[in-house]
Amino acid sequence: LSDPKPIAKSTNWSAVETEEVLPGVHRQTMHATNQSVVRYLYAPGSVFPIHAHPEEQVTLVLSGTIVFEIDGSEHRLTAGGVIAIPSNVPHGARVEGTEAVESFNILSPRRAADPVVAIERRPV
Amino acid sequence: LSDPKPIAKSTNWSAVETEEVLPGVHRQTMHATNQSVVRYLYAPGSVFPIHAHPEEQVTLVLSGTIVFEIDGSEHRLTAGGVIAIPSNVPHGARVEGTEAVESFNILSPRRAADPVVAIERRPV
Q1: Cβ distance A42 to A95 under 8 Å?
Q2: pTM
Q3: Cis previous bond, B90, omega within 30
């Protein structure tokens, strides 16, 4: 038997379940074949502790100000900001200021299982 | 010699060159290791003809209304819309209505060379 014909699938974030993965950090996840796309909403004051994962991560910031800490360096991103974090590089992030942050994380290859491997629990 | 330590890189779309790839279709492209991220701005009335490429494509729509045609089926996406188009599946798109469309296309694996292989030139 031949493989089934691949098909395109469309949806809207409004139809995707939201999980609060950390206090004030809300996440929605979709998976394609080669990549996973995660939409994040970070409340003001929220923090994502330093962690790492095998997937390369590209983050696209839509609104607010978010500061990534990577290897002791800070990257301050606002609307239109983009950061590429290589595979297995530890990183964390915190919201700066009073505006919520909306961003997309694209993980490639597709996230396989447990979504985050925390390696350090201190706030960044 | 050991490989250099991978580093994270950040930038902003405002620092990325824009190309008009088709009338009214403006594109900015960034490449990571496993994926390419393309920001599109489509003017009202603009059309991207049917084409295909080996990379899987995920499109995230930020504003406006865009209609994708894939295998004779239409997918109408507005803000928050997401579509995943498998590798090598022919697809095209057109703006509907009077609002410009902003979207991100994420291509995985990373786009290697010539960005689009057009296989059909009729408008969709």
Answers
A1: yes
A2: 0.90
A3: no
Q: Which two tokens mark A2?
A: 């031949």
Facing B106 at nearest CB: one of A35, A68, A86: A35
Checking if the pLDDT of A101 tops 80, the result is: yes
CB atoms within 10 A of CB B43: 14
B80 burial type by CB count under 10 A (0-12 exposed, 13-18 middle, 19+ buried): middle
User: For residue A39, what are its two tokens?
Assistant: 């939409």
Of B33, B78, B109, the CB nearest to A34: B109
CB of A87 within 8 Å of a chain B CB? The answer is yes
The reply to whether A116 touches chain B by the CB within 8 Å rule is: no
* Tokens coding B111: 């786009």
- Round to whole Å and give the CA distance between A14 and A33: 21
Determine whether the interchain pair A85/B109 forms a contact, defined as Cβ–Cβ distance below 8 Å. Answer: no
**ipTM of the complex in this document:** 0.89
- Chain B residues inside the 8 Å CB shell of A60: 37, 104
- Answer for the pair A35, A108: CB distance below 8 angstroms, yes or no: yes
Structure tokens at A78: 């606002």
Q: How far apart are CA A38 and CA A35, in angstroms?
A: 10
Residue A123 has pLDDT above 90, yes or no: no
The tens digit of pLDDT for each residue in B19-53 reads: 999 999 999 999 999 999 999 999 999 999 999 99
